[in-house]
Amino acid sequence: MIKVLIVDDSVSIQKMLSKIINNTQGMTVIGTASNPYEAIKLLKISKPDVITLDIEMPGMSGLSFLKKLMHNMPLPVVMISSLTQEGAEATIKALSIGAIDFIGKKTLKTKSEKKAFVHELRSKLKNAAKVNVKPHLNTGKNIPTKSNLAKNKTLIVIGASTGGVQALNQLIKDFPLQTPPILIVQHMPKYFTKAFANTLNRISKITVKEGVNGEVLKNNTAYVAPGDYHMGVKKSKSQYIIEISQQPKVNRHRPSVDYTFHSIGKYYSSNAIAILLTGMGDDGARGMKFLKNKGVITIAESEKSAIIFGMPQKAIQLKAVDHIFELKNMVPYLF
Question: Closest Cα partner for 2 from 83, 153, 122, 180?
Fold first, then answer.
């Protein structure tokens, strides 16, 4: 039985979440708290498997509570976020601190919208409850010998899903100047990808931005696929150009890692590197196999550092991976 603690100052949200969770087989609400102080008291007498956490609450913000929780009692947390630019920025901070995932507050007007929300909530809580939260991501030594694997490469493409915000924060900040163009596909909805790109840009030596249709790929720049859009590339004369589209979802995702991997496979072979990081499901696995067959160097995050090993594991099972590294070892090996 998955035990859930709801922390939200809205009584109506508490009731809605409680009804969905308690009506889900194998899941139960063990308590509700209107603020972090009530949550702390509840945590002293019971330990939930997963927490839903609102960002904006009186007294202590959800972000402040999350920091304390990750330091003192790391637990899987799913954020309840408003679908606004401000909500997106706060949510990205929460995911960087250690939250596993988030769900956007929506106006549920139709039966299909309600059904989709219920499915999303159940799925994300079940997935989060499986995660063994790490207090400190990828600490320690054991750095491999430098290989300069990325030397003379003309593209790096990275795919990630659940847990990817933490992983990409660590990976991208360590990328040196003098890198080839980097394409990043992180499963994330509208509004959130721009906030995520801005967050990465603030901590990186290279430029990080949301990808724009028709933009020419440049060195020392990483492009994040915009939420609800696929990102691919096309070639015009000697230049490679970003192509943004709303083609149908692939593996239930848009943006999709497989979509981007297949797109670059048309133009890049042994002069590219593809990396698959933490995430639930199998998006990217078949695309990585396609790239490996084209001569692209393929790398998967190891189970030891991945918050959720699903996507890398699927690629490994398909024999689509040349190298398996802990996250902390990727940049030192590449450069």
Answer: 122
Say yes or no: 125 and 161 in one domain. Answer: no
Q: How many other CB atoms are there within 10 angstroms of residue 201's CB atom?
A: 17
User: Domain check: are 159 and 125 in the same one?
Assistant: no
- What residue ranges in 130-177 does DSSP mark as E strands? 155-160
What are phi and psi for residue 240, nearest 5 degrees? -105, 130
Q: Tell me, what's the pLDDT at 331? A: 92
How many domains does the chain contain in total? 2
205 shares its domain with 79: no
Number of Cβ within a 10 Å radius of residue 4: 26
Whether 159 contacts 284, CB under 8 Å: yes
pLDDT, tens digit, 9 for 90 and up, residues 281-294: 999 999 999 999 99
The answer on pLDDT for 82 being more than 90 is: no
Q: Give me the mean pLDDT over the 65-71 stretch.
A: 95
Distances from the Cα of 7 to the Cα of 42, 52, 60, 240, 278, angstroms? 10, 6, 12, 47, 26
Q: Which residues are catalytic?
A: 161, 187, 283
- Answer yes or no: do 325 and 181 share one domain: yes
> What is the average pLDDT across 27-39?
96
Q: How far apart are CA 308 and CA 163, in angstroms?
A: 7
Which CATH number covers residue 194? Answer: 3.40.50.180
Domain span holding position 100: 2-129
